[in-house]
Design brief:
The protein is an alpha/beta fold. Helices cover 34% and strands 19% of the residues.
């Protein structure tokens, strides 16, 4: 099956259909009350924002910018105290009662639209809902002629179920352009997702400029070739093409600012102590054998991990110091997964380090390594996040666990009083196949169809109220060993990410797959308008 698809005449006709009485919003809001009638957005419609609220002013300009391309309307923007809001106005107002930082209310009647929220994030999410209340063509970046821009009269009260609504994008295995990342942020924002974890370092590439250690990108950002086909197929074949790239610190600042404007927090991930070969290729003294290694050219877990010497810990803390300067995120991800301990077991230096620190074994040495990073981050007002292997050997009190090997690690962490992001491979690994592998493009393995994603429940019925409170939210993973292009990235992400967005936002008692699937038929028209290369829905 070819992952790409083109907008055809039938699709464009569907995109131009007026809003119906049904409200097909994804993710589904907490409360929707429909009434008779509709409001038509036209060339005279104005936008008014709460006076004296700078964030509302900025969001009014944003609303103008996203409505103008498809409609061609100017949308005069002015403060509420200077605007005539008696009719034909979209009002962005402050909600006096505090329903939560991301909550909003949206009312539509025949005279106009009012979006109100206690904080700017809520206003932004109200705007995303308004975009979905309009005909799907509103999401086009080009003028769409002869569309009645009607919005059904409705009263919506909405707020998210979880605070962490995320997606991981691995840019280490395959580098992705700034344009691709920005489109990804825009698509996440439409679905009220608020976190993008960038997997910036791994065996196959180091993707972030660190000024103190330039070889990390001069050497570590480039591999000589990439495996062709699946790495499990023998003999392994390679394409002979150099692959690489990295983000300058200016790139990162630009991307962070772009994401902040769309209320998406970028969480950087710097892998340690495993998945370290690209860094060791740049600075061999960081390894355990003294051997000069290449940047890794195939996939899978390998034995080359950072040594646990004080100099290496300080090196990585220097790296984190620059990372903290670039990313305002409270949460900083340090990996911690799949750290094979064979080299530590064979290394006289590692064994001496274990003895020197009074540790029991290599697992406790990794725990020591992680605790050093936790202390470093905590002292700077940040919080460490790591994959569930960081539980092994003991875990620092303030660390947050991202549970990927099923949900067991998350359950154990929550019961031990740690915050948790549920990211199990059983339900959130979007590098898995979506159907029959014989009919799908090459993927890493597994099988994760849309309905299985949707049926994931992050909170177990056996959790106490206190344990459930430790579940921060959910995250979908896009590991890119076999995802080499932006089109294929979108094909693997959407619409499965739509399902995850609803898990993250919508109250559990309102989630029902048949209802979601029906709304998705309309929602894919929006993805068409945005030129998102999603996988077509099964009949």
């Amino acid at each position: 099956m070819r992952p790409g698809h083109l907008l055809c005449a039938a699709v464009m006709a569907a995109l131009s259909q007026p809003a119906t009485a049904d409200v097909h919003i994804v993710p589904r809001p907490a409360s929707v009350e429909l009434s008779k009638g509709q409001f038509r957005v036209n060339e005279d419609t104005a936008i008014a924002f709460e006076s004296g609220w700078p964030e509302a002013k900025a969001l009014a300009a944003y609303l103008q910018s996203v409505l103008q391309p498809a409609t061609g309307f100017a949308f005069r923007v002015s403060p509420l105290d200077k605007a005539d809001v008696s009719a034909n106005t979209i009002v962005l107002a402050r909600l006096t009662q505090d329903a939560g930082a991301e909550a909003y209310e949206l009312q539509v009647d025949s005279g106009g639209i009012r979006i109100a929220a206690p904080q700017a994030a809520g206003l932004f999410y109200g705007i995303q809902t308004l975009r979905q209340l309009l005909p799907p063509a509103i999401l086009s970046d080009a003028l769409v002629e002869s569309v009645p821009w009607d919005v059904a009269c409705v009263n919506i009260e909405d707020r998210p179920r979880f605070a962490w609504r995320g997606m991981l994008l691995d840019v280490s295995r395959h580098f992705m352009s700034m344009e691709t990342l920005k489109k990804c942020i825009d698509t996440l924002a439409l679905h009220k997702m608020n976190s993008l974890q960038l997997h910036l370092t791994d065996d196959q590439g180091w993707r972030i400029e660190i000024k103190k250690y330039p070889k990390l990108t001069e050497v570590g950002a480039w591999r000589e070739e990439t495996v062709i086909g699946h790495a499990s197929k023998k003999p392994v074949k390679y394409d002979g093409k150099r692959h690489g790239g990295f983000y300058t610190q200016d790139d990162i600042r630009e991307l962070v600012a772009y994401a902040q404007e769309r209320f998406v927090n970028i969480v950087p991930e710097i892998e340690m102590p495993g998945h370290a070969q690209a860094a060791i290729a740049a600075y061999p003294e960081l390894g355990n054998t003294g051997e000069t290694l290449p940047v890794h050219t195939t996939w899978g877990v390998n034995e080359n991990i950072f040594n646990a010497e004080e100099s290496t810990i300080l090196f990585l803390q220097d790296v984190l110091e620059e990372v903290l300067d670039l990313f305002p995120s409270t949460y900083i991800h340090i990996g911690g997964d799949e750290a094979v301990k064979k080299q530590w077991k064979l290394s006289p230096a590692a064994q001496a380090r274990i003895k020197e620190l009074g540790l029991k074994d290599e697992n406790e040495l990794q725990s020591y390594f992680i605790r050093r990073m936790d202390t470093f981050l905590t002292e700077r007002g940040r919080r460490l996040v790591g994959w569930d292997e960081i539980l092994e050997g003991g875990l620092a009190k303030g660390a947050t666990v991202m549970s990927w090997r099923g949900v067991k690690g998350g359950v154990a962490a929550a019961r031990a009083g740690h915050d948790v992001v549920m990211a199990p491979n059983t339900h959130t690994y979007f590098d898995y196949y979506q159907g029959d592998p014989a009919l799908e493009p090459l993927a890493i393995g597994g099988n994760l169809p849309l309905d299985r994603v949707y049926r994931f429940r992050p909170i177990r019925s056996t959790f106490s109220e206190e344990e459930a409170a430790h579940i921060l939210g959910v995250q979908g993973q896009l590991w890119t060993e076999y995802i080499a292009t932006p089109d294929y990235l979108e094909y693997m992400a959407w619409p499965r990410m739509c399902a995850l967005a609803e898990i993250a936002w919508t109250p559990q008692d309102l989630r029902e797959y048949a209802d979601f699937r029906q709304r998705l038929d309309t929602h894919t028209q929006r993805l068409d308008a945005m030129k998102v290369n999603y996988r077509k829905l099964d009949d």
